Amino acid sequence: MRHVTGGVCPNFEPSTVHRQKLLVSTPWAVVCRVIFLTLFVILDTAPVAFSQYLVENRGQWDRRIAFVAAGADVVVYHDGTVLLSDGERIRLDSSSIVARQQQPATLHYYTATGAIEGVRTVAAVEWQRQGKPVARLAWDGTALVFSRVASPERRTLAAVPVAARMQPALHGASWGMGGRFLGGSGRDSIAAMAITSSSILVAGWTDSPSFPGASSGATGRDAFVARLSPDGTLAWATLIGGSSDDAATSVAATTDEVAVAGITGSINFPITAGTVQPSYGGGDTDGFVATLDQSSGTRRAATFIGGDGSDALSAVALNAQRIAVGGRTTSASLPANAHQQQFGGLQDGYIAVLTPQLSSRLWSTYYGGRGFDNISGIGLWSDGSLAVAGTTTSPNTGQAIAAGLGEGSQRAAPPDGFVARLDANGQRLWGRYYGSDGQDSITSLSVTPSGLILLTGMTNGTNTAQSYIATASAAQNQFAGGQWDGFVAVLNPDGTRQWGSYTGGTGSDRCTAAAMDAQGYVLVTGWTDSEDFPLAHSDNTSIAGAEDAFIGFFSPDGTRRIASLLYGGSGSDLPCGIGWAPDSSIVVVGTTTSTSLAPASGSNAGSFDGFLLRLQSLGILSVPSDDDAVPAIETTSGALCITLPPSCLSAELRVYTLGGVLVTCERTLGMQHRLPLPPGVYAVELRCMSAPPLRRVVLIW
Question: Are 514 and 454 in contact (CB under 8 A)?
Answer without folding.
Answer: yes
